[in-house]
Every structure is written in structure tokens, then in C-alpha cells.
Amino acid sequence: MKKKLGIALGSGSARGWSHIGVLNALEESGIKVDCISGTSIGSVVGAVYSIGDIKEFEKFARSIDWKSIVSFIDVTFPGSGLIPGKKLFKMLSEYYKDILIEDLPVPYCAVAADVLTGEEIRFSSGRVTDAVRASVAIPGVFTPFKLAGRILVDGGIVNPVPVNVVREMGAEVVIAVDLNNCTIEENSEEIKKSEDGEKNISEKKDVEEEDRGKRIFEMLEQKYNEITGSIRTKLDNLRSKEHVPNILEILDNTTHIMQRSITENQFKISPPDIIIEPQLGDFRLLDFDRAEEAIEEGYKLTISQIGNIRKLLN
Description:
The protein is of the alpha/beta class. Helix content is 44%, strand content 17%. Helix 4 packs parallel to helix 8. It is globular, with a radius of gyration of 20 Å. The N and C termini lie close together (7 Å).
């Protein structure tokens, strides 16, 4: 008799497109997911999978370019987050509609956190849209989500890869997709050996990536300036010839460091049976236009584990 399979989809911003590849590989191999839990981007993909619309959502993910990213960003300053996210969540709500979690074909749970109490908040009932909105509110980036007297943010600050949640949902075999186990250094620099054998640090950029980054930054700058002229001075201070991490890079890296530490500790307490670790360390916070390579990475790693997964299930 087949054991019940659960999957825990971790937080990790744009790296989360790899969750689609993981789920595709399982489906292609005829392996059914019996329950699913997700944090942050994991809650986004997990909800769509539970609804049964993952293929359409994959088309959307692959269609995103840098212009699409900018169009979803509605910048605010000052406030409790840089991005209110109304445009983005309005778009996502088209996939979730007014569906209730308890009515989903595949049991689902999203993880968020109460920023005032530090409590882990689990959404196993109620509107899917509310659960996802709360779970993806990256502190400092997206404004928190207020619900039932609570102020909710990204569940990654308390449970980045919710293995224990899936266990409690009844899973006998758990696959964990950990997006934060890639090296942080790859986010901005790579170590290269010089001809004399010494190691030098150089920025890992090519012309296309650099141009893309400039375009996104310029569009963001324009949006900021529409709100207040004082932002220009702040942005000019951030943009210098010598590379200095901007606010999004700092938020992304600090979150990455924190979540790696939390995940390591939680895996000791509630270890998964299979760990999928996409190596996408060069992905930045808003690199959502790189879905193709992230999906391929998740797919490739999962296919390599199919034999092990089948043994555990049987």
C-alpha cells in the first residue's frame, strides 16, 4: 500500500519558480502528492497546485519579463513596506478566486507569521487568497497583511520549509524543497583564481544582465519619483560607481542568512525524507523573469530522486 506523500515548499522569492519544476517531475513520473504546505513563494505555487491549475500558472511564470515585474510594483514611501502589492495580489487572486482552502482537491496549508507576537500562523481553512497574501509579505519589501486583528508577514521568518506542518497533515513521506541552501556569495560575487594562483573577487555579471538590472532600477526610480522628489537623493546615494548593496539586496541577503539557519535547526527536529536543494544562488529578489532556468533546475533535481521517492512510498 502506498504511503501518504507530503511536500513542503520553501520560501525564497524568485527561486521559488523551481517548485513548479519539482511538481512537474513528480506528476510526469506518476507520483501523486497527497498534501502540501508552503511558505512565501512556496505558498503561492502550492496553492495553485492544490487547485489543479499548475500548468496554466507555469505559462504565466514563463511569460514574465522585466517589464512585467515593474508593472506589478506599486511603490510606497514611507510605510511598513516598500511595495503594497495590490497589483500583484489582484493578479494572483485570478488564480485563487474565492476558493476556500477546505474545498481544495489536495489538502493545503500556508504558513505566515504574526510580526507582533512572533507566532507561526497556519492557514488550513479560509480563503486561499488571504492565506497566500499573508504568507508572502516579505518584511520590509511587501506591506504586512492585516487579518483578524493580526499583522501578518512572510512565514519564512519562523518556518522557511514547513516539514513539520506536512507531517502533522498526515504525510508519512515528506519531500522538502529548500531554496536557501545555495551559497549567498553567488548573489553578487564569485571567487576566481588569477594566473598567479591568488583568488580575486569579481562581480558576476554579463552585459545582458547588467542592462536588464539598469532598466528595472530606472523604472523603479521613476515610480519613486512620482511619489516624492526627496527619494531621488536617497537613490542617488545608493547608486555609486563602487558597488554598494541596495536596500533590496540587503533585505534579500539578510533574509537568506536567517532562513538558512532556521531551516538547519528545524531539519534536525523534523527531518524530511527527501531534500531538493535548487542551486540558484545568483538569483536576486526580483528575478521572476528567470522562470525557465529555475523550473528546469527543480525538475532536473527531482527526476534524479524519483527512484528514491518510489522506494520510500512503497
